[in-house]
Amino acid sequence: SMYFGVRDNINFGNSAHGTYFYSSFVDSNFFGVVKDTLFTPYLEIQSGDQITFNVKSSSFFPTKSKFIARELSTGTITTIQGVGSQPNEWDEVTVDLTGFEGVYAIGLASKSQSYGQIQIDLVSSTARVYRAAVDMSVRSAELPYLVRVGEESFAKCLVQNKGTQPVAGMDYNLVLRSEQGEVVAMTSGTDR
Fold first, then answer.
1. CB contact at 8 A, 81 and 98
2. Which of 106, 158, 108 has its CA nearest to residue 130?
3. From residue 56, how far is each of 88, 165, 174 by CA, in Å?
4. Do the beta carbons of residue 137 and residue 159 sit within 8 Å?
5. What's the pLDDT score for residue 12?
6. Cα(34)–Cα(5) distance, integer angstroms
7. Is the pLDDT of residue 58 over 50?
8. What is the dihedral of CA 119, 121, 126, 132, to 10 degrees?
9. Which of 36, 53, 180, 192 has a CA 20 to 30 Å removed from the CA of 27?
10. pLDDT above 60 for 68
């Protein structure tokens, strides 16, 4: 795994809390534009809920950063407010989420006219983490490297539902497709 934004306080400055923090590096130059957005998991937001970030902006490499909300059912992104913090110091910024009742992911979006840097640490919220009724994901898969037409092959795929409602094997299908998107094989799930 690669963790581009995670920094430790031994080599990259001091964190607000603990050992690690997130650094966002954005740029706009001859080679293109690099923007950065870091989202929380989806949250069940009720009136009066808040989210708190520890934020450290750079006076030498400023960014245009803002807190945003992404609504689960539509994907619509709305600006909540800009990030106001003292340069080169860790500031605890609390954002009132009133007006965003429902299920949203809260994010910190950053961009710059040139090179820019902003760091965040210890994000907390009074809102609960949202759990979908059905949240299927592939846990592991054992697939042959090469499959020949007309020859029987065996593949094993383990899926997991992290949702709040049970899912029976007959409620979903596993579909194997070729690189061109053609269905090669399909089977119902089985219960374990």
1. no
2. 106
3. 6, 40, 45
4. yes
5. 60
6. 13
7. yes
8. 80
9. 53
10. yes
Q: Which two tokens stand for residue 4?
A: 């581009």
- The pLDDT tens digits of the residues spanning 138-152 come to 889 888 878 777 888
> Per the structure block, which two tokens stand in for 145?
């490297």
How would DSSP label each residue in the chain?
---SSEEETTTS---SSSSEEEEEEEEEETTEEE-EEEEPPPEEE-TT-EEEEEEEE-SSS--EEEEEEEETTT--EEEEEE----BTS-EEEEEE-TT--EEEEEEEEEE-SS-EEEEEEEEEESSEEP--S--EEEEEEE--S---TTS----EEEEEE-SSS---GGG-EEEEE-TTS-EEEEEE----
Mean pLDDT over the full length of the chain: 82
